[in-house]
Amino acid sequence: MEEVDALFDQLKRSLVKHEGNGEGEAGLERNEDVVTLDDSGSRERDFERIEKNLRQLPRLQNSFDKLDVPRVSESKSYATSKEKPPREGSTNEEWFSLPTPTGEFAHRVQRDLQLIKHRAALDPKRHYKKDRWRAPERFSVGTIVEDKAEYFSGRLSRRQRGETMLSSMLRDTDQTGYLKRKYSEIQQQKQRGRGRWKGKGKGKSKSRR
Fold it and tell me: What segments bear the compositional bias annotation Basic and acidic residues (predicted)?
């Protein structure tokens, strides 16, 4: 309590020094909790004096003031329309930066694309939906990295791994064995009907000796 009384006495002595502050002094004598100080006039005069001095200072000239400030209300579609459209064959954000293959790379992956198109004939145990598959305009080729926790039997060895899908398939003994067997069956079926042939436009069959 003595410290609180000392603080109030110090505040009372500081208020006595200010002129025209009788209302605040009367409030302290009545032991009121709220004390109001009327010094708004002096503060306004100080702010006016500071503002007047700031206006008299020389203005700095630099290139920052000449920069073009973009409009805040500018929509995203309007901003993108002003940009130069990308050329055909380059990457695009809407395609997740997928490029359009051209040149030697496009020629090299043509066989791989044919394998994907006729993948249903490569493995009899796998069935795919029949559709008119076409090579996409934009695509990219990558390498599958096996997980370290995967067993060795599920991985491809260096001998089996090729630079392209076609080279990897030709190194697979099981796959090449199936393809050779199917090829021999097709050749045998063709050779069975080799003895008879029909003449063009005559509708007659002749035997070849």
Answer: 18-33, 65-74
